[in-house]
Records
---
Amino acid sequence: MPDILPETTPDTRSLRLGVAGPVGTGKSSLIALLCRELSGVLQLGVITNDIYTDEDARFLRSAGVLDPERIRAVETGACPHTAIRDDVTANLLAVEDLEEDFAPLDVVLVESGGDNLTATFSPALVDAQIFVLDVAGGGDVARKGGPGIARADLLVVNKTDLAPYVGVDVPRMVLDATAARDGAPVLALSRLDRESIDALTTWVQTLLAAHRAGAHVPQDPGPMAPHFHADEDGNGFLHTHEEGDASHAHDHSHADEHDGAAAEPVAAAGRD
Amino acid sequence: MSAMPEVDGEGRAELMLALLADARLPTGGHTQSAGLEPALRAGMPAAQVPDYVRARLATVTRVEAATAVVARHVALAAGPVPDGAGSPPAGGASSAGVPDGVASAARGLADTWLAWTARTPSSALRETSRRLGRGYLRLLRRLSEGHPAVVALDEAAVLVADAPRADGVPDPGAGATSAARAVPGAGTDPGGRAATGRRAPQPPRPVVLGVTAACAGLSARQVARLVGYEDVQTVAAATLKLEPVDPVVATGWVVAAQPAIDALARAVADLTDPRAIPAHGAPLVEQWAELHSRTTERLFSA
């Protein structure tokens, strides 16, 4: 029986890259940045998930960094979690449309609706995902963990240029994040810091190469992060709510795969 | 489903009915309010939601249910999944290599599809139905892969793409009303691609649901009641996101709608001919749908 599922059609299949993270951390700006940097060398498409408006799609179209026809909004019906995780139908159809209309696309960027720390993409929708935090949200957020922080393919600590104004120690935040991720890549990013921008685009290009070579296996950050239960003596134990530790082990090997020029934690200092 | 031995047909129909009525069905239903959001925006008080539900069940939802019932009926002509791989299909095959039953079902489905189009004057409602239909079709392809009725639906898309249009309006399945799309429609139809390289038209939700019902062994009455229930439940659930209502109250509305759902089921369950699909209109629902499709700050897609 032939496989008639359209999303597996090889000739138009792009790298589908999710961008998740809390409201206001700079997901749309990061996508605009990627479009600005990469649209000259890669064929890109963008899907935005807006909870209440098509604001993000309009922002990106007005940014003039990509053909407006390549930017499409998916409305999530007040269920931003659902639309990227349990019922990805609307997003998958939008991605498939873009891939068909502008075939062949190299990368489709899928922006989640701004949500909280627990929202992650299903691997049924994206091949890899970036989780975005910003220094203005507080230096301790990376320590709080969550599936996106702990196990997204890349964690971005955004707006490092604001660090002096919000009293955040960027290297400390990056170290915390790297610890929370067992060494998986963390990128301190500022739109004013050329070196950090280059590190981001290199990471995407490296991922794309791995995807094309068949070396990249989509990973599920999972619905829950490993977390710590303290007991009365101040001791406790770390565990996850997953079946066994299989996916955890996966993450380690996954991180190793990308350890290279792009995947090394990059701690670009904020401007001060 | 074709691989399941010794299936209890009645049990399977009951299971599939529950599955298809479940809000957790992965078809993108969570983006829908069945027109409730624009209705409330237009000033309809939340207290009138039960009346709104009954009005829909008597008009647009009746067209939807009738379409699903007729689509189920005509899809059954495609026959069951053949026993064993490679066995010749029953009823012989046409010169094109398509079994006669499938060709007959395809013609019936195309007629049903066009009948629904003619009875759904709002392009916004048609576009929404096509989008939902894609979600259902994606699920149907996975659950009933290779079923003759699914093959017939792909064939029907080709027939609809070729259907002459007297009014010069773009293809009924083309989705040309959406300005956001460079190329209208969708690309999930490997069997139904139009020869011109355009995308094949997308079947609306009731047509796909009717085919799903045929594959799942649902009765005509079950599919009619399913459409009625799903519509009411969509409105009730959306109310909770839009207005401060106790969920047990909204659930009570669903139960209270039973006589209207039964009336709908009785009215459409015996239909078999696409021409007999009723043409009830609800101008306000249609107008609200049009307005909503051009509203930017909205919680639900439709």
---
Amino acid sequence: MKVPPQDNRIPDRALAVSTHGMTMRFANFYALRDASITIAAGSFHVLLGENGAGKSTLVKCMMGFYRPTSGQISIDGQEVDIPDPRAAHELGLGMVYQHFTLVPSLTAAENLVISRADAPARIDWKTEREGLAAFMEKMPFKVPLGIPVGRLAAGEKQKLELLKQLYLGRRFLILDEPTSVLTPAEADELLGMVRGLTEAGELTCLMISHKFREVTAFADEVSVLRRGEHVGGGKVSDLSTSEMAAMMIGDKELVRPAARLPFIGKPVLEMAGAKAPDRSGLKTIEIDGLAVKSGEVVGIAGVSGNGQMELMELLTGQRPLEKGAIRVKGAAYRASREEARRFNVRYLPEEPLKNACAPKMTVAENIYFRDFDFLGGKTQFWLDGRRMKQEAGRLVGEYKVKTASLNAPIASLSGGNVQRAVLAREFTGAVDLLVIANPCFGLDFSAVAEIRARIMAARNAGAAVLLISEDLDEILELSDRILVMSDGHIAYETPAEGADIGEIGRHMAGHH
Amino acid sequence: MTDIGYWGVPLAILGGAIRVSTPFIFVSIGECITERSGRINLGLEGTLVFGAMSGYAVAYHTDSAWAGTLAAAFAGLLFGLLHGWICKFPKVNDIAIGIALMIFGSGLAFFFGKPYVQPVAPDLPAIPLGFWSDIPQLQAALNVNVLFLVGIALAFAASWMLKNTRIGLTIRVAGDSADAARALGIDVNRVRLWSTGVGGALAGIGGAYLSLYYPGSWNEGISSGQGLMAVALVIFARWSPVNCLYASLLFGGAGALGPALQSVGISQGYYLFYAAPYVLTLGLLVATSSAGGSATRAITAAPGELSITK
């Protein structure tokens, strides 16, 4: 069997890593100030903090992406210099990023082999495949090695990212919100495996997370950052979640989801016999008898890659319907701008920067997309710059979008602020149907609470809400009725009240 | 000349496929390697013309067609490296630079090539694979240039390289995801620089074939857009070197249809058949693109970093 040869300098066991007085200054803004964190060998350490608290900056300094303004890193008590990521890798430090770093057109096997520093000049696929098979044998989960990574579902990609780090023999692993794309069961499996490796003393893990459930279930210790400063931490067993939350957010009020008003009206969205090919073109998406009534939130749960993305695309008009019909308020609906305006249909797609924005246009222009040619029931020929500035300015204030100026390109905003800007655009005015997909993906929990409260408010105001989400907690929190999507169709339906989570999980996994 | 009647048409197509396709093979495989690394070099038309000129000139002065071919490859390499070097600067568009280099290469070739329109340089050698036959048309069709055989070998070698070597995988990583490449510690600009350089060198060889074998002389209209067509062939071939070979053969064969029909005495509308390669390519492109049926399916083989597919 062929194992990736270890660099001589990487020991065969977990590494202890600590930072001393890490400071990172951009112009006159401190992204990180005097952060000293110690991560013991073989521990599972979690870095908590809101968006922009400096977590990413800290780990980027550790991995050599940034040169800290001041401060040192030591590994196993010895001070080290990490000028670039390659140096970090040679010291045994690895990272699983929030975005995928796999190459989409290469197969999993090709991705693994090329990621090795000692990839042979001529690759003998027979021996490599044998070596990979032997390596996979020891791993608690499997990923298909022979198909291009671009065709794998998000969950599988994330597993492969982790497998890659282990394959490369890394002894200190930074995980940047690794479970945001996984189902609870998958997340538990993944983290349980990492936990096992840390307990065996083979790996030290530093995880960035927002999920307290994962922290309490798997982590040994936490460090909390707020506004670039290390404000506290300790053993997980000594801390309660409310103490950790208090450290994270300081003294700020959280928006609680509004109370649920009992209100069920007429059906707004209906899908009957709708059929379309999925992304790979090999399978079919079939949605029949889906109805969302005014004043209810229908949650669609499911493991990523079971057709939810395609369902969203059908509803937003990004994917042509092969058969069947989508009806809104009883009329056929083809998602044209005209129809969306007439029926007051609004969208909050996942990855809003890609699916709901023109990234290089300004914040004001992006917020103005719904209204730029329309005022008081009449179409307008000329663009009214002053009205745009006024309305965008008002919405930016109201939705607390943090931007340098209204004229900044929206792509320069952080993920949470892009989502707030889109929210401001889509939630303004009369809303009768709201179609939402993974609205809180990658956001910190105060932003999450705010977005969920807005969704509930829209529901209480009488909107029909279709919520497609891979986060089961979100579905359970917001929905009136829960549907489970599996293998391209709706496999299960239950009222949210008294829903059996085990049953939902079984249908998500495809066993029923 | 033996009269073989309408049999002359398929023979002419075979001969055309072998003769005309060679420059397409070299340019398209070169461009294929460049595009797999994530850049488009439209300048290959200029490189082809400059390769034809420099190859002819050096062959004339050294009296060796092979020295000319080497010189053309070297000139092409320099053109490719120039493209790769300019494109590494931020906010430089590879397509615009390609167009600039296309005009630059052609202009430079015309400028230096004036004295070489008249003189006669030695030809590249051909292998008479039709020796077993008495029919002169067949012998002519099977008179195969060495570079054609090299081109075939090159197509398979390039395919193998992209799949089975570290260099090949590195090129594909750089072409598919610059972020992932950087995370792997790959210097994306360096990979693209050399991929463009190799692409240029191959285009230079294609040019030498034009001036040193078929048509076999240097003049300013020698390429007539073949370099550009070869770039289009790469997209048609879905970025696979072996497909580039087949596409070039198809294109060369179809290109011989018009002259072949004319030679057997069809005088009505034969000029329409001169358009055969373009019509055929267009038809096949439409047919293969719509095979999936769904408009939302991207061209799956396209390198993700390519500026035309982004």
